[in-house]
Description:
This protein is mainly α. Helices cover 79% and strands 0% of the residues. The longest helix is centred in the middle third of the chain and has 19 residues, at 23-41.
Amino acid sequence: FPDGLVDLMLVVLRYTLSPTWNLGGIILFLLDCLAAALTARLRFFASSDLVLISSLIRSFAV
């Protein structure tokens, strides 16, 4: 498995197990998929930066 695919599978698993399937949850799901795709494509992107970005997005989305 490529790393990005594993990330994507983990993201899908996390959201299918979580009960928050409202519009916000779907948007966050898509953003996390995008982040996983970005980490797969751009290796110079630190994953900690993506975690920081996604947590910032989550804090605004709540």
